[in-house]
Amino acid sequence: MTREVMFLVSAAMGSVALVAAYLYLFHAEISAKEVGSTAAAMMFGAYIGRVWRRKEAHG
Fold first, then answer.
1. Signed CA dihedral, 58, 14, 35, 8: sign only
2. Which residues does 39 contact at the CB level (< 8 Å), separation at least 6?
3. Going residue by residue through the chain (59 aa), what tens digit of pLDDT does each one get?
4. What is the pTM of this model?
């Protein structure tokens, strides 16, 4: 359980940082709505990939 929480927290922090940096560097403005929605989609995709990999490994 603790491992899953730590994964989600690190995915959230990394996703927010990456999206905010991208928006600042390439668009010169940061929208909280865009950062939040894109970071949530990245976290969802990372978690689904993690679950899928675990199922593939166990057959």
1. positive
2. 12, 15, 16, 19
3. 788 889 889 989 999 999 999 999 999 999 999 999 999 999 899 989 988 988 888 76
4. 0.77
